Amino acid sequence: MAHQAEVSMKVNGAESKSVIEPRMLLVHYLREELNLTGTHIGCDTSQCGACTVLLDGDPVKSCTVLAVQANGKSITTVEGLASKEGLHPIQMSFWEKHGLQCGFCTPGVMIAAIGLLNENPDPSEEEIRLALEGVICRCTGYQFIVDAVKHAAQTLREAGETKVAMADSMKA
Length: 172
Ligand code: FES
Ligand code: FES
Fold this sequence. Notes:
Elements: E1 5-11, E2 14-20, H1 26-33, E3 52-55, E4 58-61, E5 74-76, H2 89-96, H3 106-119, H4 125-131, H5 143-158, H6 167-171
Parallel strand pairs: 1-5
Antiparallel strand pairs: 1-2, 3-4, 3-5
Helix pairs in contact: 2-5
Bound molecules: FE2/S2 (inorganic) cluster (FES) (2 copies).
The site of one FE2/S2 (inorganic) cluster has 11 residues, from loops.
């Protein structure tokens, strides 16, 4: 039997623990072990960004991280954004500003946007485009995505949020 490793991490506020092959990528752990299929796989070259999740608050491409490297850490996926009160302000902004078409890239785009807004609550268009350059969208032409992120930033500033609250932290 292949060597196995035990991993435990907090995913969207819930503790998860599994025994896996040490070579398992974080994206496969999330999708196959935890059934969190909102984190997408759009390439096998680490270029598309559809797999982007927050790892201890920082956006990472989860196809470039081994699940064992996330041991003991905290992960947020797109499933962690909405709460029982409704959609997250980022999701609402993408809805209102038509920041998606097919939606395949959208989970990664929104997570990357959260990473940006946590660092910079009032980004310029250029800063938004720079922060999102690692996530590729084949449909939208990006302008509506930029508009959605600007709108989300404004909504969060008006709400007085200096960090983008996650559904799991709002539950706590
Ligand atoms: S699946 Fe394309 S960058 Fe991760
Ligand atoms: S909305 Fe289709 S890939 Fe971005």
